[in-house]
Fold:
Amino acid sequence: MGRVPRAPGSNRRSYPLHEHPGLSPGCSPFWRDASPTFLYVPEDFELVSACGSRPGLLCEWIFNQTGSDAAARIASWLVDRPLRIALILLAAWLIKRILNRAIDRFVRRLTENTTVESPAPALPDDVSSVAGRRALREHTLAARAKQRAVTIGTVLQSTTGLVIFLVTGLLVLSELDLNLAPLIAGAGIAGLAIGFGAQSMVKDFLAGIFILFEDQFGVGDIVDTGLATGKVEEVSLRTTRLRDQAGTLWIVPNGEIHRVGNTSQLWSNAVIDVEIAYDTNIDYAISVIKDTLDKIWEEQDPDATVIAEPNVLGVDRLGDSSVVIRAVVKCEPAEQWGMGRIARKRIKEALDEAGIEIPFPQRTIWIKSDSDAQPIG
Structure:
């Protein structure tokens, strides 16, 4: 709060009316003495001129003690302002440290909860068998959950660090009496230009963050992104790497993934289509297929991984030379292809044993000779 101006005759300075730097033309003076050429002003104007609009305690004390503008300015720039800037930096460091510890605690708790709910099994030595693939999948899921928590923590720490850095920078610049309006306006224009120029990259990063947060897919999953289908090898904030069955590595920007089909979540269905001849008893063929699939389920074949009773849906379509019967077998995730190969082999053997023909395309060709042609006329 400014000091109360002293009465005329007290310790105050006089300026010629046309030379006082703190008054603009048209301002009325506080006091005038007998001479109209001099103006007496309170010391608050001199304090503002020496220490600025927000004078520090040290600057104001030195100005009150010495009455020297130069000494007050030197004290302000050498002691007062550096001290306030140091306090701002210290407060920013403390806030950043507290937030980082809170984020680390959140990530640690999330990781511990994930580990308690589904402990990560040991990495298997042999992944050629179904048991090995199952152990590898469980190990990958547990590691992916931990990695997702770490990634979330890294993103949160980076975001909070950037916000604290920007706010601290603005506060420090304000302590140096810099006009922040042009700086903020320029930064806004630059940000707008960068946003328009790199909007696809920003879109990729935002999509990657939501993919990780929502756990849409991860390393080891077999997904269909619309642009490519294959096994996920790497997921970053900007791109997803897939390797298809032919061995081609696809690098897909996350912003281009508008929909994704994940065949490795919780369970999968092996869809089996069996073709039989038109003269075959359909009910008998369905019973043979059903019995064969039930035997696979009851045998608990370690290579079959059936987790529910198979279901024969019935006639799916009528083809040119066959009737198609569809069956669905629920199995472990990403095992539908192996399960389908086992089921088709067993069904083929059962149909051969039951005498049911699996037809092949047949055509009847009529050959017309020239002698059979009727004259026109």
Observations:
- The helical segments are 43-51, 57-66, 69-117, 130-175, 180-197, 199-214, 282-299, 336-354.
- The longest strand covers residues 268-276.
- The first helix runs from residue 43 to 51.
